[in-house]
Specification:
This protein is an all-alpha fold. It is built from 7 helices and no strands. The longest helix has 21 residues, at 3-23. The mean pLDDT is 80.
């Protein structure tokens, strides 16, 4: 086999591998956990800023793992979790943590979740202590060490 044939095969295998890695995140539990985490962090200070919503949408559109989700579904689920906070903060938090807890046995997905939550926390230019506390709680619910994320 020629060098170009070997390279072509390697490239096809690499593309297939990357595509398979991304596909494993194409599930409702992962999307719900990420969106629930975003809602939790956004609600940490008692109100949800427009910049936090925009940062979530932008991050999801750019992320190879997350852009597989339809933005209408993402917005719908975000509004669902936000409505839980509007009804009762404790109920909303419990519902969001329940969705997040489904990633407990998937550290790779959980790390992506924490990265997104940190980005949302910093979206308004101030990743404050209330937001960091929420992200620490999220870390605990997915069995990750907050120190790994400088929290």
């Amino acid at each position: 086999m020629s060098f170009s044939g070997t390279f072509t095969n390697w490239l096809k295998n690499t593309q297939t591998s990357l595509r398979d890695q991304v596909k494993k995140f194409q599930n409702r539990d992962f999307m719900d956990a990420v969106v629930a985490g975003c809602a939790l962090v956004a609600a940490a200070d008692g109100h949800i800023e427009s910049s936090e919503k925009q940062k979530m949408a932008s991050y999801i559109n750019r992320s190879e793992e997350l852009k597989v989700f339809d933005m209408n579904d993402v917005i719908s689920r975000f509004n669902h979790f936000v409505s839980g906070f509007e009804f009762d903060h404790g109920v909303g938090k419990m519902e969001a943590l329940k969705a997040i807890g489904k990633l407990k046995n998937n550290p790779e997905a959980a790390r992506i979740l924490i990265g997104v939550c940190c980005a949302i926390g910093a979206a308004d230019g101030d990743f404050d202590e209330k937001e960091k506390i929420i992200v620490r709680e999220i870390c605990q619910s997915v069995n990750l060490n907050p120190a790994d994320f400088q929290l």
